[in-house]
Amino acid sequence: MHSARDRIEYEPWLEELETVADRLELTTEARSCAADLFLTDVPDADRSKRAVLAASLYAGSLVAGDGRTQGAVADAADVSRLSIQSRWKELLESAGLEPPRW
């Protein structure tokens, strides 16, 4: 659970997360999980936030059983697929979840 202050501080990024989630037609559960993952590990540098946002959406969709491909999320978020590939497992681990081992 994240504080209201965190949600207020990162409101523009959470709005962007919702915009990208709309493009992907993600479920409410996937969006909620993605927002929690994003808030768990928001980077300091603004230039890294979009990549973490995309990785959070990808991982959140997996956790919620509403999985999308890394490519689809990357396209919707305007990042490279490699940006997602290099971050999503760490996001799950930092949230105390075990990434799949496929």
From TrEMBL:
Signal peptide per UniProt: none
Transcription factor TFIIB cyclin-like domain boundaries: 16-93
InterPro entries xref list: Cyclin-like_sf, TFIIB_cyclin
Taxonomic superkingdom: Archaea
Transmembrane stretches, start-end: none
Pfam families (UniProt xref): TFIIB
Full protein name: Transcription initiation factor IIB family protein
Species name: Natrinema soli
